[in-house]
Amino acid sequence: xxxxxxxxxxxxxxxxxxxxxxxxxxxxxxxxxxxxxxxxxxxxxxxxxxxxxxxxxxxxxxxxxxxxxxxxxxxxxxxxxxxxxxxxxxxxxxxxxxxxxxxxxxxxxxxxxxxxxxxxxxxxxxxxxxxxxxxxxxxxxxxxxxxxxxxxxxxxxxxxxxxxxxxxxxxxxxxxxxxxxxxxxxxxxxxxxxxxxxxx
Length: 200
Ligand SMILES: [Fe+2]
Prior knowledge:
Layout: H1 18-48, H2 60-83, H3 93-103, H4 106-119, E1 123-129, E2 134-140, E3 151-158, H5 165-168, H6 172-181, H7 185-197
Antiparallel strand pairs: 1-2, 1-3
Helix pairs in contact: 1-2, 3-7, 4-6
The chain binds fe (ii) ion.
The site of fe (ii) ion has 7 residues, from helix 1.
């Protein structure tokens, strides 16, 4: 069962309006939660049926399977996005140290991450790749395209236009700057700590 989790912060963000956050969290993210539950229910029925059928050109099962990864990742990525907002943007902790070790400095990382986010159509994510034990930046053009299995999101930035268009119009760069101004580094450090404990 997927649940519509409450926002982890109740403060007004800098440069990202409450209207944008309310729509994003209350409608769009909720939509992925609801669809994930519907798809899961239908797949459970099909898995128990006597003659489950699939066809790669078109079948209900193919459609459900495509929808499953899109909707489920839509839930996970939005939760990771909201989880690391509401902070003061001041880099700190083991994550900041690991970022500096890999990219030279947090500032240099932010430049690279911003360029990646300008090049993405859906998401830019700093993830802990547990396969190789490294921090890596991934771009996803859709929720279910562009990530790799075994990579755990740490800093997740939604760059779909619904994340910023009401606030900055087509100016995505300013939105990404605002994203970093509101970054909750304590929450990101907690995700980093948990991700590193995962052994695969
Ligand atoms: Fe979104």
